[in-house]
Design brief:
seven-stranded mixed β-sheet, Rossmann fold, 45% helix, alpha/beta, five-stranded mixed β-sheet, binds nicotinamide-adenine-dinucleotide
């Protein structure tokens, strides 16, 4: 994954999460002890990791594991390696995971982890040392039935494999369900790489069918061309949607006639950028661009392009009070976590735009992680069709629950998704006698 995922505003991710949570709490009229459980993590673990570097020196990093809520099952959530990973950010992401797993109705709670480091400055051996040090530091906090981690920004299947190996070595056990997002050769599940995009795609398809729209008449703009964005662009293109613009950290390209994401992917692989077919750095082949009806756009311009569906799939907090009025899309599908600020949410709502919130739109990743966890527990390997069928069913059930609540209470999809998630967590906490 990419390291340039940098927030753009001063409000913290956690205060943004609290805006929606507090509105939900108020509407549901919850009791004091219920509010206390829902608005703070159950545990915040903070440790210092020290590794030996290739040159013989030592380096230490702050590492976090925030365990938000485990009423419904083991804590679940990724681990990110990022210089700006801090307690506030990890806490917000852990909280979102708790809502997401409850909304998807999978038997997990919510957690998130982070190591404050710049992974691009380390060798593979050093990265392995950081990964093993993380597991070693949180050995008693993690575990298949306690807290199941996964990849996140800048962590990948290799890192998951080292982490599982460290756990099994230290505990002297066989534990395929210790962590998800593993390589296929070491307990992974087929389709985990495309799961987030696929889940979002199923939700969008359902919305399009429900509103009796024709995919070939829908113009789609996607910000971010990594795991989530690139797979989404490809799914949509295959189904006949008109993907008119895509971008990555270096900018984007726009063609009202539509672009071919497979071709973009080919050039991105060769040149490192989605604009690679036309531009080398800031120098572009204007003639070729004119001939192909392609324009270069900045990431800010991209969000405001004429389109029907806008899919932020890179950064958080990119649609804010400053640009929300200029967003032209009728549908916004949040593949990224937290791309729309609470102020922008209100503006978009007033304009009649439909926002499919992150806790629903990008839940496909954790849903397939659940299949991988279950696969590890049963010892029976899942096949690709099984993954697709079960993912589709779960995503559509979650969407139906959200749509039903939105209609019943006359609230946005985001508030409805939080309501469904919070009510499910509360129901279990009450059943367990916690509140
Ligand atoms: P990734 O690192 O694979 O891709 C990120 C993409 O964003 C890259 O194309 C990068 O170039 C682009 N980018 C970085 N800075 C940018 C900028 N300033 N402007 C525009 N684009 C920029 O990451 P990913 O896994 O695709 O995750 C993207 C988002 O989706 C994140 O918010 C992540 O939390 C969320 N998400 C991902 C998953 C998953 O399974 N991959 C699951 C849930 C949520």
């Amino acid at each position: 994954m990419d390291t340039t995922l940098t927030p753009m505003s001063t409000a913290t991710p956690y205060t943004r999460f609290r805006t929606t949570l507090d509105a939900t709490i108020e509407r549901l009229g919850l009791r004091k002890e219920e509010i206390a459980f829902l608005s703070q993590p159950q545990y915040i673990h903070k440790k210092e990791l020290t590794i030996k570097k290739d040159d013989g020196s030592s380096e230490s990093f702050l590492a976090f594991r925030v365990q938000f809520n485990n009423a419904r099952g083991p804590f679940k959530g990724g681990i990110r390696f990022h210089p700006e990973a801090d307690e506030e950010e990890v806490k917000a992401l852990a909280a979102l995971m708790a809502i997401k797993t409850a909304l998807s109705d999978i038997p997990f709670g919510g957690a998130k982890g982070g190591v404050q480091c710049d992974p691009k400055s380390f060798s593979r051996r050093e990265l392995q040392a950081i990964s093993r040090a993380y597991v070693s530091a949180f050995l008693e906090e993690l575990g298949p039935y306690r807290d199941c981690a996964a990849p996140d920004v800048n962590t990948n299947p290799d890192i998951m494999a080292w982490m599982r190996d460290e756990y099994e070595r230290r505990k002297g056990v066989y534990a395929p369900s210790f962590i998800t997002g593993k390589p296929l050769s070491y307990g992974g599940i087929p389709g985990r790489d495309t799961a987030t995009a696929r889940g979002g795609f199923y939700v969008l398809q359902e919305l399009v069918n429900h509103d009796a729209l024709n995919p070939s008449e829908l113009r789609v703009v996607i910000q971010g061309f990594g795991n989530a964005g690139a797979h989404m662009a490809q799914f949509l293109h295959r189904e006949g949607y008109n993907v008119v613009a895509v971008s990555d950290s270096q900018g984007g390209i726009y063609s009202p006639d539509g672009i071919d994401p497979f071709r973009i992917q080919k050039y991105k692989k060769q040149t490192g950028s989605v604009t690679g077919e036309y531009c080398k750095g800031s120098v572009c082949d204007i003639e070729k661009m004119k001939l192909d009806h392609v324009e270069r756009v900045s990431n800010e311009e991209l969000l405001e392009l004429p389109c029907d569906v806008l899919i932020p799939a890179a950064l958080d907090n990119v649609i804010t009070a400053e640009n929300a009025r200029h967003i032209q899309a009728k549908y916004i599908l949040e593949l990224a976590n937290g791309p729309v600020s609470p102020e922008a949410d209100a503006i978009l709502d007033a304009k009649g735009a439909v926002v499919i919130p992150d806790v629903l739109a990008n839940a496909g990743g954790v849903v397939v992680s659940y299949f991988e966890w279950a696969q590890g527990r049963s010892g029976r390997q899942w096949i690709p069709q099984q993954v697709k069928d079960h993912l589709r069913r779960i995503m559509l059930e979650a969407f139906t629950a959200v749509r039903h609540e939105a209609r019943r209470s006359n609230i946005s999809y985001r508030r409805a998704a939080f309501t469904v998630g919070v009510e499910r967590i509360l129901e279990t906490m009450r059943a367990r006698g916690w509140v």
